[in-house]
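Justification of computing resources. Each target in the renewal requires a structure prediction run like the one illustrated here; the chain below, 155 residues long, is used simply to show the kind of job we budget for.
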Amino acid sequence: MGALTSQILVGQGNPEEGGINPSHYLYLSEDGLSVWSLVQTTNEVENDCKRVTWVSTPEHLLEDALLMIGLYVIKDHELKQMAAEYFTEKKGRAVVMLKEKDDRKEKLYRRARKIASHKKIILTVFHGSSVKKQIGKLRQYKMNIEVCTPLFLLD
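Resulting structure tokens:
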């Protein structure tokens, strides 16, 4: 596993005080392979987590994470139907990999861009993350997204 370069929190936002009550966490590891790990958490049972690991492509890191959110967190019905044709999953610790068909993948991205959700998404982009170059793509999405980037670095 490479260094973690980005994280995403997904959950309920607090309109009065800001912040988030996360129900899901996504972590991006970059070291040769770009791997998103999504973990579902519950407050009742600490060990009751569902984990999905997705090997992404460098040029689609951010949109792949948003697809994961659409599929596994928001559970958009239309997106799930479309994705069933393009993904392979293994039981247990699910490993999900996109098939090599960019035109089909683009249809999934287009659908994900249309999803309007009440969920709050907070993206934290660490220094050196490949996601930094893709932040502008977020303007195409109808989700409540907050982006955090390094303001101060001390080496």
